[in-house]
Specification:
220 residues; Ribosomal Protein L25, Chain P; Alpha/beta knot; five-stranded mixed β-sheet; 6 helices; elongated
Length: 220
């Protein structure tokens, strides 16, 4: 699908992430939360434009065709942008609590992570993760930043489990504060995709975890 360039005015048109397939002429019934947002919050009326995307079919210019307060509907008109997946980089991170985790997810999405992978370490403070909330924050960040792709959010895993089956073709980058002083830019310049960035817990990795990472052939 080729990108269709739109005017500066259209760039301010509201954006909405949908699960439904998008195609020319497709009519889509919105769920209650989406209807409330468009009709009651944004005050859109039938005939008003919006841009919709689902992470698969690109972004489409749509029009509201039914502004019912319980279930609005829209019709897809034409594509405005193709799907552009970000570089194949995983963001592997130890979860933190509440609002700070929301911020982490939003920024990782904006920076172009392809996957968000919570990892549980010995010192991870937030042992439980609300995956639905993480996905909602990733979608919101994509909507606000004109992204057509939403990163995958995976189930939490322990560091040991992740490292036990880490693929040999994916570089794993992490900060080892106890390692000998080196030039990080020179090291990073030699890396090739696919890759992953690992960020540990607030208290840092344990001695055992550091040893596991240092001994792994894919870790840098």
């Amino acid at each position: 699908m080729a990108a269709v360039y739109i005017s500066a005015t259209m760039k301010t048109t509201p954006r909405l992430h949908l699960d439904a397939s998008l195609a020319a002429g497709a009519e889509i019934a919105l769920i209650r939360e989406q209807t409330h947002y468009l009709v009651n919050v944004l005050r859109l009326s039938p005939g008003d434009p919006l841009r919709a995307f689902n992470g698969r079919d690109g972004e489409w210019l749509c029009y509201l065709i039914d502004g019912g307060k319980r279930q609005a509907r829209l019709r897809c008109e034409k594509p405005t942008a193709a799907v552009r997946p970000p570089p194949d980089i995983d963001y592997v991170f130890a979860p933190i609590k509440h609002a700070r985790l929301d911020y982490v997810v939003q920024k990782a999405t904006e920076l172009g992570a392809r996957r968000l992978r919570p990892v549980i370490t010995a010192r991870t403070i937030a042992q439980r993760v609300n995956l639905d909330r993480m996905r909602a924050n990733a979608i919101e960040a994509a909507e606000q930043c004109n992204l057509v792709f939403v990163p995958e959010v995976t189930e939490p895993e322990t560091l040991a489990a992740i490292m036990a089956r880490w693929p040999s073709g994916r570089a794993l980058v992490h900060c080892d504060e106890a390692a000998p002083l080196a030039d990080p830019l020179a090291t990073l310049s030699r890396l090739a995709l696919p890759a992953a960035v690992l960020v540990g817990p607030e208290g840092g990795f344990t001695v055992e975890e550091q040893a596991m990472l240092r001994s792994h052939p894919s870790a840098t």
